[in-house]
Amino acid sequence: MSDDMTNLELDLTRLGRALAYPPTPELAAIVRTRITPLSRSATAKPGAWGLAGTALAAIVVLVAVIVGISSPAREAVADLFDRIDIFTTDEVPESLTEDFRGEAVSVNEAQQRLGRRILLPAGPDGSPLVPSAIIYQDFRPTRALAVALFFETDAGVPFVILETDTSLGKGLGPGASAQPVAGVGDGEAYWLQGLRIVQLYDADGNFIEESQRRTEANTLVWIQDGLVLRLEGDLPRDQTIEIARSMR
Q1: Angle between helix 48-69 and helix 3-18 axes, rounded to 10 deg
Q2: Could you read off the pLDDT of 217-243 as tens digits, one per residue?
Q3: pTM (2 decimals)?
Q4: Is residue 93, in this structure, part of any structural domain at all?
Q5: Same domain, 135 and 219
Q6: Same domain for 168 and 59?
Q7: Domain check: are 108 and 157 in the same one?
Q8: How many structural domains comprise the chain?
Q9: Are 138 and 148 a contacting pair, CB within 8 Å?
Q10: Pick from 135, 154, 118: nearest CA to 213
């Protein structure tokens, strides 16, 4: 099963558990009378693609029902099919740290531990920028890994790029906003402003408490080459998007 379908199943499960369902009417007799004539005339068994189509149709119907009766689901439907979960929260606890906790490593060490190549932004000459520092985060026993790469612009404005191989959650506090961005990476992308909670999820869709932190920095979050990336810093939107598009 693909990661997208796995995340879809997890999201549908969480949404289903959160819903209050109305009493179910007695439909068995009605359905039986409608199905029986069809079953008598049907002689061919559906093939594998037919079964897959039926299953997909059932998923789409379920999503439509959830979206139709649940306001929170309508707000989250843009994130239902991917690895970025954006939600709203009434409070961002002051107890959450704004710091990046982890172990200082080199680019090579970060790549070895993450098990893949680290993406880097390009400098003015097109060559990869060298980060001034790298923090490696290993949230055991979940195997949720992340690296934080620290840079500065030519004007001396600091920013950080975070890369993870798991799913990411962003909790928008009061007054915070999220806007879709086109043309960045190879999946969904959002421009975020205001006070927020940041958290990672394990393979079962549970948030990892140790990964939670708070931030007010302007943030672009997107998907590229199988990683979820976010760029945080006091940079304007256009400059942030330009840096993100240079990532290789």
Answers
A1: 40
A2: 999 999 999 999 999 999 999 999 999
A3: 0.69
A4: no
A5: yes
A6: no
A7: yes
A8: 2
A9: no
A10: 135
Of the candidates 172, 213, 212, 214, the one whose C-alpha atom is nearest the C-alpha of residue 193 is 172
- Sheet with 103-104, strands from edge to edge, namely 103-104, 133-139, 144-152, 158-164, 227-233, 218-224, 189-193, 177-180
Distance (Å) of CA 234 to CA 156, 158, 160, 193, 237? 11, 8, 10, 10, 9
Residue 228, judged by CB atoms within 10 A of its CB (0-12, 13-18, 19+), counts as buried
Taking only the tens place, the pLDDT of each residue in 14-31 is 545 444 445 555 544 444
**The Cα angle at residue 23 between residues 17 and 27, in degrees rounded to 5:** 110
- Rounded CA-CA distance 16/210 in Å is 26
Read off the tokens for 33. Answer: 């009378």
Widest pairwise Cα distance in the chain? 76
Question: Could you count the other beta carbons within 10 Å of the beta carbon of residue 120?
Answer: 19
Write the Ramachandran bin of 157: left for phi over 0, alpha for psi from -120 to 50, otherwise beta.
beta
96 located within any domain: no
Token readout for 30 is 């009605």
Residue range of the domain that includes 62: 3-81
Q: What is the DSSP letter of 22?
A: P
Task: Please count the residues of the chain.
Answer: 248
